[in-house]
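Help! Submission page says 'invalid entity' but I think these are all valid:
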Amino acid sequence: MNVLGIEGTAWNLSISVVNENEVIVAVSDPYTPKEGGIHPREASQHHAEKMPSLLKAIFDRFPKENIDAVAFSQGPGLGPCLRVVGTAARLLSLKLKKPLIGVNHCLAHVEVGRWKTNAKNPVTLYVSGGNSQIIARRGNRYRVFGETLDIGIGNAIDKLARYFGLSHPGGPKIEKLAEDGQKYYPLPYVVKGMDFSFSGMVTAAQRLKGKARLEDIAFSFQETAFAMLTEVTERALAYLGYDEVLLVGGVGVNKRLQVMLRVMCEDRGAKLYTPPAELMGDNGAMIAYTGLLMLKHGYITPLEESFVKPNFRIEEVEIRW
Ligand code: ATP
Ligand code: FE2
């Protein structure tokens, strides 16, 4: 079975074809804002412009006739971007006369991670620009055990980076600067039950401008934010009695975050799983693979239910596998 998947909920327009065993082809065309953060309308225009050439690049390398279904990211994400992706997917499904499958973007991050690491029943720490959630399966649903009360950790890092004049995305730049950090400046550590918040931390870190080295600010920010995420992940592990942690989402490539989680896991006799970097951030293969799983278990999205869902939650999807 070969499934084509289109991802484009935010910055990355990415298309891929996968089968049960591997990613067969994958192409991406990321949108990078000229200045500031991601502008939804500009990002959607970017996706609309690049869609034809990306699809052509796929079909140059993989015959259209061999595609069994068309999967697309139905949400959550930026409305204008989701509409471009949804329209392209609907057209393609009609043209190829193959079923359409609307995929939850967060579920796709989790499933591609399980696929590529062989984690069985993990507590997943999903950390990206827009999202920060601790997810685990209970019965036939994934449940969110803890999440950010305001902005995602990636957006928090990007905001901090932007304030210091670094271009988008800020994550890799802050990580690099933090490597040379020497002094820790305390920042608000906000964990409320299983939830957490980052916006107060961003403001406090911004106030250090001119008073502290940028390397030390980046270092302090990462240490504080990642400790919060590690603490809540550990609490979910203890509560559920699971012994696997899966790290997914664009922020998951951060080496410091990986080290903190690994130390926590080792202390508890648990194992940390990290998918390959190219499958951690937004990518078409995760949508294609989750579409394939869904197709195998009888999910097809009728046209009239293929509308975009900007606030689509992972709990809404019944898991049949
Ligand atoms: P979602 O829709 O799931 O919220 P997203 O649109 O934010 O996804 P991702 O690719 O999952 O996209 O994540 C992008 C985020 O990852 C950006 O905020 C970026 O700064 C951050 N990021 C990338 N590399 C690193 C890094 N090395 N350290 C920390 N953050 C990083
Ligand atoms: Fe994502």
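Support: the input was valid. A stray whitespace character was the problem, and the output above is from the cleaned input. The CA atoms of residues 45 and 81 lie 8 Å apart.
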